Amino acid sequence: MNSISQYFWSEYFWFPSGYTWKDLENAPGSKEYLPQTNDILWSIPLGILLLGIRYIFEQYLMTPLGYWCGVKRNKKTVPVTPNPVLESHFEKNGITSNNNLESVAKQTDMTVREVERWLRNRKAQSVTSDITKFRECGWHFTFYLGIFVYGLVVLWDKNWFWTTSFCWTGWPKLNVPREIYWYYMIELSFYWCLVFSMVTEHKRKDFNQMIIHHVATILLMSFSWATNFVRIGTLVLLTHDAADFPMAAAKMMKYSGHKKACEILLGVFIVVWILSRLVYYPFVVIYSATVESSAALDGFACYYFFNGLLIVLQILHLIWSYMIARIALQKIFKDKLEDVRSDSEGDSD
């Protein structure tokens, strides 16, 4: 383990030849700040704090707002008596299969009709309510809109925002202003919050992709902070936030029954998604990280790992783009709006 730790923190992994950790040390009394690896640890308790803020926000603001906007209240479900045999059958088959119901009934001393009734009630309990999904989207919409506006404001006067080659000029001694520091920490904390909350949110069809996305983003932000690739990291964050809040808003309109507003916002989301994830991200951000960076520094292990994570995110963008194309085609040819990025498994949103 010691050898692995030594290799992981070795300057050979984190820096090109000729650079050391001392190049990222802050000079006493200096007004400029270079990122420190222990800064990243603060994002975890901040992520836990965001969980508490999220709970209060959803329960006391988004829930009443959802009902006011027209979200239908849930029909009362009949509670089922815990039964391990029936629970196992439900997890494997749901209620769509009638296979072996007689065998299951014999194992539980119930009639086939009673088993069917138990499975229907269990299914009703497993369906995530519209108000739950509305308030989850309300939290996402509020955060993504707020952080996108904040990011746009703090980056507007930065030279690397307009000319991406400045992301690398002068590396590694690139000052991180206080507003950029907090931009990074808040975003990183939010992604920790997303990972923590995925165990309680309704199960989505793209659950595995979302886990990969969140973990890749946390790794990307952590590695970029440790090596002071912060400037290119801010562009990655802004690019991703741009499309997330119109998507969340479209879902909120869907769950509250405002079909026309949902369709308009979905159209806005698709346009922003194409421009940000399929145009700007690969042809500006990835280009800068792989081509422009080579003019300022030589390749090294962490550099290649960082760029590999950027490409992983782009692969996920392509997968989600396929899903989004399905939504658009369903609307055009079937007049059916189904958000395949947020469906709970076995249940249409």
Helix content: 55-70%
Please identify the oligomeric state: single chain
Low-confidence stretches: 343-349
Question: What general outline do the C-alpha atoms trace?
Answer: elongated
- Approximately how much beta-strand content do the residues carry? under 5%
Task: Give the tally of β-strands.
Answer: 0
Number of helices: 13
Going by helix content, strand content and strand pairing, the class is mainly alpha
Q: Could you describe the 3D structure shown?
A:
This protein is mostly helical. The chain is elongated, with a radius of gyration of 24 Å. The C terminus is likely disordered.
Task: Break the fold down into its secondary structure elements and pairings.
Elements: H1 2-8, H2 11-14, H3 43-69, H4 84-93, H5 101-108, H6 112-126, H7 130-155, H8 159-162, H9 178-197, H10 207-226, H11 230-255, H12 259-290, H13 301-334
Helix pairs in contact: 3-7, 3-9, 5-6, 7-9, 7-11, 9-10, 9-11, 10-13, 11-12, 12-13
Task: Give keywords.
349 residues; 13 helices; 67% helix
